[in-house]
Structures are given as C-alpha cells and as structure tokens.
Amino acid sequence: MNTIEGFRVQIEKSVRESAGRATVLRLFVPLLVGMACALAAVPALAQEPATPPAARPRTEMTVDALSVVKVRSKAVPNARSAGSLGQQREGTGVVIDSNGLVMTIGYLIIEAENVELSTSDGKVFPAAVVGYDNATGLGLLKALIPLPVKPVDLGQSSAAGERELVLIVGFDGVAPAYIVSKRPFVGYWEYLLDEAIYTAPATVNWQGAALLNREGKLLGIGSLVVGDAMGTRTNVPGNMFVPIDVLKPVLGDFIANGRSTSRPRPWIGINTQEVQGNLIVVRVSSEGPAEDAGLKSGDIIVGIGGQQIKGQADFYTKLWASGEAGVEISIDVLKGNRVENYKIKSINRESHFRPKPVY
After folding, report:
1. Pairing mode, if any, of strands 68-75 and 238-243?
2. CA-to-CA separations, 57 to 3, 5, 22, 120, 150, in angstroms, rounded
3. How many helices (H) and strands (E) does the chain have?
4. Per-residue b/e over 44-59, b at no fewer than 16 CB within 10 Å?
C-alpha cells in the first residue's frame, strides 16, 4: 500500500470510528480521494519519483522532518496546576526558528521546573521556558543546545477555509484531517478565543501538535479534543487549535519579555458552566481571588459591574473590560432566593502560579 492510499484508508477508518454517524460519513467519505491526492502536494510527504528498487535509498520519514519535537515537563513541587494537569506532562512542540525556539500549548509548561525536548531518534535536549501567554494559551520554549530540526514556516491561519485539507503533526505521528469550522471558543477557565480552528476526524495526539496546511506551513497549535467540532448542532468529535495569527502581533514582545507587554487581564480564579445564560461556579481556584472573597462551588453568577450577563463569553468580555489586573470586580451572585454582591480583588493570572525554585 503506498503512502497516499495509506492516508486515505487511515482517515476513512478514523471518521468511522470517531463519528460513527451516517451524516458525518456523507460529509467526509466522498472527499477522501481528493484528500489523498492533495496530500501529495505537501513536500515532506510527497512520493519519490519511481526508480528501480535497488537504486532507491531506504529512508524513513520522521516527524522531525515536519519540525516537531516531543516536550516533557515536570511541574514545581506543590504546583497549583498539578491537580488538573498533573505533575508530569507530555506533548508536542513545534520548532519555529533556527535558534531553537519551540512553540507549544501553554498548559504543558505552566509552573514547569524542568523541561526537555526529544527527537524521533531518542536524543534529549534540555530546554528553558521563555514564557506563557494567558490570552492565547500558547507557550514558548528555547532549546539550550542546538536542535537538529529545521524550523517550520508560519502560515496565515485567517486565510484557511472550511473543508481545507490539513495535517495534524504530533510527536507520535501524523494524521490527515479537514478544517470543519472556524468560530469562537469559550473555555470554562476564564479563556476566550474570538476564532479557533476546529478539525475532524478527531486525533488523540493533539497536545501542542502542529496544524499544517498543504504547503507545510503552520496554521495552529493543538489545544483540546472536542465533541462538537462542527458546532453545537452536530455531535462530531474533533480537535480545537489555537490559530497562529493570534500570536504574531505579540511574538516579538513574547520572545523578549516572556509575555505580551499589553496590560494583563483581571483574573478571579473560577471555573464555570453556562446554563441558560447564567454561570454556575463549578470550581473555585484554591487561594485565588474568588475564594478569598467567599465564592463557592454551586454559586450562580447573574451579573458583573451592575450589568446582567448573557453567558460565558459576555461575562469574560465584561470582566476584561473592567480594567487591568488588580481592579476590583463587582459580581452579583444568586444564592437561594436572593442576589448577593461580592467584591473581588482581581490579580494577574501569572502571579497565581508558583515560580521555579531558585537554588
């Protein structure tokens, strides 16, 4: 079975296993042949010209050739993020320049004490955390010794369209997919993207994975697996990617300072679930501003700054419009049959995480 036919079989199997619905198959299966042909346009995956078997060198394509390395990190002792993310974390990083800068998803390196990168041959390279961007959720690393990996070119994620053929490149392998929607993403952890990229069929190798277009250029960084890649009206599993365009305006500051120099957003430390436009608090961050103010799991947030809220996205927008980190946030909370007002002293989210120990 040749490479292109192998990819065709792989995606057809993935769609059937991950979706299992006739409507999804009608959408994707007719496009499989075109997708397989288009894969040949990716230089790194194109088949070699036919030559006699004896004259053809034996080569093995590795993810290193697609600018990807493995990321392993260990969180600091007593890391506040360890409860949700674990102490040991593992995923993918994407090499973005010849000086060893590696882009990944930020939750892999939050509160990291030690970070190492590895290539497909098992060689390990120590790395340092350059920074983490709260607004985008992306993280940046720097290899401390040169990486034998060619950097990827940055693409233009805003130009990528629905039904476009893409490759999801994680350290554990490559998976073909389609962009099936581009729309906002609202996270329960005080996180909002105005436009995220959603792909299907789903792959399990998503944490920090590279999303590449047919020219091999980077469109996004893998963040999550989702159950509604095509929107809330259809239960189609897929993956959500942070588009690379959101980082371009601040990349220079990010490299120089470890963060964007724009004003830090106010953060209060709650996880919420939206129910009919109101927000149910499902978790309060330990030792965070909301806990200090007395908010508890099960409280229902109905307003902020004297204004009624219309869901999570509206709440975040109003929260961040209140001023920069440190501003006092006034929140109306429904408790039983009455509404109580809470004053919460917001902070910069970065200051909540424990720093790497200095020895």
Report:
1. unpaired
2. 16, 21, 43, 20, 21
3. 7, 18
4. bbeeeeeeeeeeeeee
User: How far apart are the C-alpha atoms of 61 and 324, rounded to whole Å?
Assistant: 48
The string of DSSP letters for 261-319 reads SSPPPPB--EEEEEETTEEEEEEE-TTSHHHHHT--TT-EEEEETTEE--SHHHHHHHH
Going by C-alpha positions, the residue among 265, 282, 264 that lies closest to residue 273 is 282
Residue 10 DSSP SS3:
helix
Domain residues of the chain, as ranges? 270-352
Average pLDDT for 219-232: 94
What letter represents residue 14's amino acid? S
178-211 pLDDT, tens per residue? 999 999 999 999 999 999 999 999 998 899 999 9
**Class at the top of the CATH hierarchy for domain 270-352:** mainly beta
Backbone angles phi, psi at 190, to 5 degrees: 65, 55
> Which two three-digit tokens encode residue 195?
């436009």
Q: Are 252 and 272 in contact (CB under 8 A)?
A: no
Q: Which residues contact 198 (CB under 8 A, 6 or more apart)?
A: 179, 180, 181, 182, 183, 226, 229, 230, 238, 239, 240, 241
Q: Distance between CA atoms of 302 and 337, rounded to whole angstroms?
A: 13
Q: Report d(CA 249, CA 111) in Å as an integer.
A: 25
What digits encode the pLDDT tens for the residues 38-69?
344 344 443 334 344 444 343 345 687 899 99
* C-alpha to C-alpha distance for 147 and 123, rounded to whole angstroms: 10
Residues 6+ apart with CB under 8 A from 118: 69, 70, 72, 124, 125
Least confident of 208-212, 261-265, 278-282: 261-265
- At residue 298, what are phi and psi to the nearest 5 degrees? 100, -15
> How many Cβ atoms sit within 10 Å of the Cβ of residue 279?
24
